[in-house]
Amino acid sequence: MKIILLKDVKGQGKKHEVIEVKDGYGNNFLIKNGLGVLATEESIKRLKKDVQSEIDHENELINDLETMIRIPSKLEGYDNPEYPFGKNIDNALNTFLEIGKRMGFRTKNIDKHCGYIEFGEGDELVGIVGHLDVVPEGEGWQRPPFELTIENGKLYGRGTTDDKGPMIASLYAMKAVMEKTVVDKRVRLIIGLNEENDWRCINYYKEHEEQPTVGFSPDADFPCIYAEKALLTSYISETYIEDYKIKIKDIDCKNNRINVVPKYCSAKIEVDSKIEEEVKAFLLSKVSEDIAFTKMQNEFYIETTGIQAHAAHPELGKNAISSMVMLLNEMFNRFDVEDRLLRLLANNIRNETNGESLGIKHDNEELGDLTLNLARLELKDGKIKAGMNLRIPGDVDLEEIKDKIEKAFDGLEVKFAGEKEALYIPKDNELVQKLCKIYNEYTGEHKTPIAIGGATFARAFQNCVSFGAMRQGEPDMCHQVDEYISKKNLMDACNMYALAIFELAK
User: Fold this and answer.
1) Are strands 260-261 and 309-310 parallel, antiparallel or unpaired?
2) Is the pTM of this model over 0.70?
């Protein structure tokens, strides 16, 4: 018979462990003396609730989150061999590992490229994989981006949603399971450090460490993500040839990340004296809340502003670079100035987020539509260069997409980078169903698994999907100014992660 131990029993197991014993010993000793109960479906449900109820360290969790938010763990480049992603990201890793050590976990810093926090024994490994790096804060915050601000039940700060908050929640979930039950597998929280860029961290982990046999990433949406779009980044450039009538002196989009809809873009142009007044009149006709300019002698400083958003949902933002491209192209046409890159961007991308003018529009009701984000524009080393990020449903041929982009920008230099294949796990997969069941039983909802345009570390491993921490129907604050997660949602996620760990590791 199977028994759930209610107390530690020498030679048999620890509290909450499910053991198999002879009927007589189970009935006449363990159950009779209040040391265990029969492991029925109902008693196992009660055990899950007991594990969940042990997450009672809310203040401690919030304090640790505050510590992590204070570290501006943005990528600082790859030039320093001592700090592969910069000192601040290195500090974030070491600080997080110290929190894990304090809790009694095994920890490992993997050559400063990544790390893990682990407990349990056994041959099988359950993986929880997330990241501590964040995108740059951007402009327009009403609260300090690298301080934890608590207002009206919301936790504000860069990384509260993506992905420091969910990582802290996962760590405390592990703590609850480790302290209150015994599992049959090892549980490892894998810590990535440059998820927001090119994933060197997770590739390094895969080259040097054991792969989980099953797992989840706390870096997306509930109830469970069964599909993620493929990713493709395209860089298009040409040698910039100055025209005496209008010369571009500088373009600045504040080093906007390729996975962020740009909120800001500026251009400095030098204008021939003969057309100064005409250019001024043209710009005056375009001035709005999103377009502004100033004149200094024969130079014009133009600014476009938009709404920042995650590149997975570019339709939720307003692209400042697209606005600048359309404005400059119209100006150049007005004064008979040729710039092929601007012209082709204006003709093929416009202000669209679906790739229609580029000829790559693709609708998919199940997996989500193709999206496009024009994320970079710069003038550097004599070249004008643009970068765009695409999220592509898994039923689309990536080579066909590349071919259409190359043809649309024929004659220009086109390079592709950041290619990541789509993730697809059937909805009826056991892992998907388990996680959805945990979410629905906990919340009382009846949600089904979903597909997203974002990319998570789940796609880096076999038998791994994303599981929270965002809730459907609530604002997506990833990569946004004044990023936040509600305290309730974070603690709910912590509870559900504990249930998931218990279920996957038992």
Assistant:
1) antiparallel
2) yes
